[in-house]
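SEQUENCE-TO-STRUCTURE ENTRY
===========================
Question of interest: how does this chain fold, as expressed in backbone structure tokens?
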Amino acid sequence: MVKILGIETSCDECAAAVVEDGRQVLSNVVATQIPIHAPYNGVVPEIASRMHTEWIGPVVQEALEKAGDGVDGVAVSSRPGLLGSLLVGLSFAKAFAWARGLPFIAVDHMLAHLYASRLSPAGEDPPAYPFLGLLVSGGHSIICRVDNFDCITVMGTTVDDAAGEAFDKVSKYFGFGYPGGTAIDKLARTGDSGAFRFPIPSLHKSGRRYDVSYSGLKNAVINQREQFRVKANPGDADIAASFQKTAVEILLRSLFRAAEDTGLTTIVAGGGVAANSLLRSRLAERAAPGKGFQQFRCIFPPPEFCGDNGAMVAGLGYRFLERGDRSPLNVTASARVQGFRHLPR
């Protein structure tokens, strides 16, 4: 049995966890900064990095105490994310590993999100490779083919705003609350999703068959919604429901194209937006037999593993360390990953 300490500080969640043999979560501690950033309706990078500096020691200590009996290696997110925040976690992990003579690995935060569905308890056996990955968060919207824990091929991504970013900006404009994704999801449950018919971009005509775009939708909801209004006197819940319906449809349209073209029938979702209730229910429909369309196996991590957490980092780190991979102690953080940007056609 091999226990790995995972540390995650890529944005505003200060998280640490201990995972055994890449699957069994022994502890998972997340200190959220949501109340601190709520007055700004968004993450303030400098504040985030300062809070990580204050919190990381106690968070790691709590994770270790809950798991008990020490750890055999250390994994940490080093890319992509807010540079200042990443550096706090990376520096702490390096020092921790060096002081205890432990093997150390720096991992990609987005690969860790894809790995989250393999953690126990996930409710079912881990999906076999290859499968389609759907990574949706405040900074990324990625559709990819996943051939192994460290091998993905990006098929489509956003050409402008990420899905989570659109949720946050729409929520901020209307004062729905922070974080925007959670606030809109909750408000939309009492709204009429047919109150507005917001436009869906047609990127496939320019050869971007699997790409998505949210800039136009965001602009339509904020600045042009009267042009798309169907219902008289719509309320805030109607705006939220109509926006969410269109945002999810944009993702699913490109995802189903990728599934059709690759022939892959297993879809694994990850990232904060993967907790969205409408996205989950729409994909659940495609998992049910007898609906008259192609059936998929759709896998979501438990909600506690959708957002940023140390367990997904520890689980992925175990796979690298098991293979014999190590990171040098002079490895540094990277705010972006070239492979996750839009690829020229």
Q: What stands out?
A: The chain has two domains: 3-116+305-340, 129-300. The longest strand covers residues 24-32. The radius of gyration is 20 Å.
